[in-house]
Design a protein that fits this description.
The structure holds two protein chains of two kinds. By secondary structure, chain A is mainly alpha-helical. Chain A has two domains: about 475 residues, Sodium/glucose cotransporter; about 110 residues, no CATH class. Helices cover about 65% and strands about 5% of the residues of chain A. Chain A is globular and about 90 Å long. Chain B has one domain. Chain B is elongated. At the A-B interface, α6, α10, α12 and α14 of A face α1, β2 and α3 of B.
Chain lengths: ~725, ~90
């Protein structure tokens, strides 16, 4: 029986777990310190340190998984509903913060400045909605999955199945992105092959979630949270001490911002220019000035080309369009307006509040009261990282503008070369290839040769590339000794690094992942700290993957099989099916991850818009509007999804299709009102929900936790679960 | 002073829900004021610089986040009080 334990038993349990995890934290810090000492004083090779951190943390997660193995349904799907608010907060934090939050978010801020803050506010502000509008009511409802709620509230299997399919699609793309993250971290820090990295990482996930379901996932996520937040905070704290002499980066990066503003002005990176398309409209570029990103379909074109390369297909990429464009002034210029920022932020907030793997975390706390508190702790633990990300970005940008830009190519700090080997950064100044043997030129030069932007001919036949003084060939092309082409300009051969020359082997801008990954090296810290960051990134990716696999498994085994196909299935069958679904989902995710399609990361971003236009309005109206009924909910979910996907697909391929300059990432803002209107109109046109469902809504609003009564609503027409 | 715990169950539920909705609305207005409004006013706010932070940038990067955390804990605290006022806490089951 799922009876909430009495509050004294609860506090004994909470104190016991606090002691365990306190000891764990101390132990983890001691082990890290020992590794640090071994590296510095005993000269233990970095490769070994990398492996030790990897294997140690993976072994730890597996151990927690084995200790928490279970055959009880309540433990497998909802961790026995006895996770104290604070620990559920940490687990939610780890569940929520993915490889993208840990590694890429600071990088996004670094690259696009203010415009990236839509992610910071979006991915935190959603928790306020979750706390005020969803969490207490979903906890009151209890049960196992979000489709369970949709099915019970909107009376029927159609609504349940639509919700289950949405949950599976969203979670599967999301988990694929995590698997890619795991592979990349392994590759960069341990030097193993990407595929092997994926396999090692996934086996770690499986040991944990397969044996113990939600219970094991929850308690592993708590440990993973501790590791990831430690790993995130240490390097940036040292950066702050070095750069400002003050050990709290979250407060001291104002100084970094001031230096960025100064350096950007000196280097001509922040300037106000007239729009090429709209005369009289002025836009200011730079880190602080807002809304200066234009629209383009470069990512759609890249995605199509990548698919063609990987699978030998011959899809035609869409025609290149950028807005603003001097040649097509009729497309306008939306820079300088806040609409795209606001739409994106709104979608991220509403999507966060509607994502199934986050919502189910609030089924695992003992009571309605604890669920409210638990959202607070969740956001607090997430806040620790998101509050720090802008500091990371600012210190990195300050450092690069100060110590890389304007320096001689030959005098760059050592970390640029080190991370250049991983392909995250390339200094694209041709001075670097002066005197280099033919065929030994770095890959960014080879890539430019392939695209035709540079031609190298060994005119004097000495087998070495010789640069000469710059000469203009015509308006677009230049020559400098043995190199010529459109990429050859006076600045690109002068041996002094320009901001625009800092890129990667394949692109003209830095890979944003560099910001967090290289921070320990920029701060001159030993490799052990770098390995700690890798372990943190891995923890972030694995914990999110774990939570998602449980959602997928429960959607198939519980919602589709047990609730719809075979309500008489035995407990054993249901748990066995859940376990095998976890393995199946993991294998599918691994297969989808192997080609490393850029489209996957794109789909994760779209998942927020889709959740914002489907789950969010349905769950919201289900709780706050008694009259909402099944036909309304189904019409709303489908209508919201169709409008969102339509805008998304149109704008992604052809940005000239836009409303107020809102990009495909914010497409949920159009689907949401359609979904709400459809729920309202269709509900009013059809019969009011039966008395029993109206009673369910009244019950949801009563905060006294009562799982036995609520179980009746959930399992109506199905075999008693417990 | 009325003892709300003594009211008939239906009346209690109605009043409790009304107070809850009022609280939710107030907090959502604050939520909107600290996240969406500063985006609309970012250029004006950026002219104010405190401790090196342009205020418009600061609201987006940290200021709104602090308010979000406070709002949720406040709601949890206020709702516990409301549960007790109407005799709807878990101890009253």
């Amino acid at each position: 029986m799922a009876v909430s334990p009495s509050s004294s038993a609860q506090s004994v349990f909470r104190n016991k777990m606090a002691r365990y995890y306190g000891l764990f934290t101390i132990g983890f810090l001691i082990v890290s310190t020992i590794m640090l000492l071994l590296e510095v004083f005993a000269g233990v090779p970095t490769q070994i340190i990398g492996w030790v951190f990897l294997l140690l943390t993976m072994a730890l997660y597996a151990t927690i998984g084995i200790i928490s193995r279970t055959k009880l349904l309540d433990e497998y799907y909802v961790a026995g509903r006895n996770v104290p608010a604070v620990f559920n907060g940490m687990a939610t934090g780890a569940d929520w913060m993915s490889a993208a939050s840990f590694i890429s978010m600071a990088g996004t801020l670094f690259l696009i400045g203010y415009d990236g803050l839509a992610y910071i506010m979006g991915w935190t502000g959603g928790y306020v909605l979750l706390a005020l509008l969803f969490a207490p009511y979903l906890r009151k409802f209890g049960q196992y999955t979000i489709p369970d709620f949709v099915g019970a509230r909107f009376g029927g299997n159609t609504a349940r199945i639509v919700a289950a399919i949405c949950a599976i699609i969203v979670s599967l793309t999301y988990v694929t992105a995590q698997v890619v993250g795991v592979g990349l971290i392994m590759q960069r820090f341990i030097g193993v092959d990407f595929r092997l990295g994926v396999v090692i990482g996934l086996s770690g996930v499986l040991v944990c979630s397969f044996l113990g379901g939600m219970k094991a996932v929850t308690w592993t996520q708590v440990a993973q949270y501790i590791i990831l937040i430690t790993a995130y905070l240490i390097p940036v704290t040292f950066l702050s001490i070095q750069l400002t002499g003050f050990p709290i980066p979250q407060l001291s990066y104002g100084q970094a911002l001031q230096n960025i503003v100064r350096l950007e002005q000196e280097q001509g990176l922040s300037k106000t220019t007239e729009s090429p398309a709209v005369p009289g409209k002025f836009v200011t570029s730079g880190y602080i000035p807002p809304f200066n990103e234009g629209l383009s379909n470069a990512s759609a074109r890249a995605a199509v080309n990548q698919i063609n390369n990987q699978f030998g297909s011959s899809l035609t990429p869409p025609e290149a369009i950028t807005i603003p464009d001097a040649k097509r002034p009729e497309l306008g210029d939306w820079r300088g307006t806040p609409w795209n920022f606001l739409a994106l932020m709104a979608c991220l907030m509403l999507g966060t509040a509607g994502l199934p793997h986050i919502l189910i975390r609030f089924y695992t706390v003992p009571s309605v009261r604890e669920s409210r508190l638990s959202v607070g702790w969740s956001l607090f633990f997430i806040f620790l990282l998101y509050f720090t990300a802008p500091a990371y970005a600012a210190f990195s940008r300050w450092n690069i503008l100060e110590n890389v830009v304007g320096k001689q190519v030959s005098e760059l700090p050592a970390w640029t070369e080190q991370w250049g080997r991983n392909g995250l950064i390339a200094i694209r100044d041709f001075k670097a290839i002066d005197g280099v043997a033919l065929g030994k030129q770095p890959s960014w030069v080879k890539n430019l040769e392939k695209s035709g932007a540079v031609v190298i001919e060994d005119a004097n036949g000495n087998g070495v590339i010789d640069l000469g003084p710059f000469e203009k060939v015509d308006d677009k092309t230049g020559r400098a000794g043995e190199i010529s082409g459109t990429a050859v300009t006076e600045k690109s051969i002068d041996g002094i690094v320009q901001y625009g020359e800092i890129g990667t082997p394949t692109a003209g801008t830095i890979d944003g992942d560099l910001v967090v990954l290289s921070a320990p090296d920029i701060a001159g810290l030993p490799f052990t700290i770098g390995a700690l960051v890798a372990a943190g990134g891995l923890a972030a990716a694995l914990s999110t993957a774990d939570g998602l696999l449980v959602v997928i498994a429960s959607a198939v085994a519980h919602d589709i099989y047990f609730r719809t196909i075979n309500p008489k299935a035995s407990l054993q069958t249901r748990i066995m099916l859940g376990k095998s679904m976890i393995v199946v989902a993991a294998v599918i995710a691994a297969l989808l991850a192997l080609p490393r399609l850029a489209l996957i990361a794109q789909m994760v971003a779209w998942a927020f818009s889709m959740a914002a236009a489907t789950f969010f309005p349905i769950v919201l109206l289900g709780i706050f509007w008694r009259r909402a009924n099944g036909p309304g909910a189904i019409a709303g979910m489908i209508g919201g999804l169709v409008v969102t996907i339509f805008y998304m697909a149109m704008n992604y391929t052809n940005p000239a299709f836009n409303v107020l300059g809102i990009s495909h990432l914010g497409s949920g803002i159009f689907g949401l009102p359609v979904a709400i209107i459809l729920v309202v109109v269709v509900s009013l046109m059809t019969k009011a929900p039966p008395r029993e469902i109206q009673e369910l809504v009244d019950n949801l609003r009563n905060p006294i936790t009562d799982d036995e009564t609520m179980a009746k609503y959930g399992s109506k027409g199905a075999a008693q679960a417990h | 002073m009325t003892d709300f715990t003594k009211l008939p169950a239906e009346e209690r539920a109605r009043l409790y829900w009304r107070e809850n909705l009022r609280l939710i609305t107030t907090l959502i207005v604050i939520w909107f004021m600290v996240s969406y409004v500063p985006v609309l006013l970012v250029n004006q706010l950026n002219n104010i610089v405190i401790g090196g932070f342009p205020l418009g940038y600061y609201m987006g990067s940290q200021g709104s986040l602090v308010v979000f955390v406070v709002l949720i804990f406040y709601y949890a605290f206020a709702m516990n009080r409301l549960d007790q006022k109407y005799g709807l806490g878990d101890r009253d089951r």
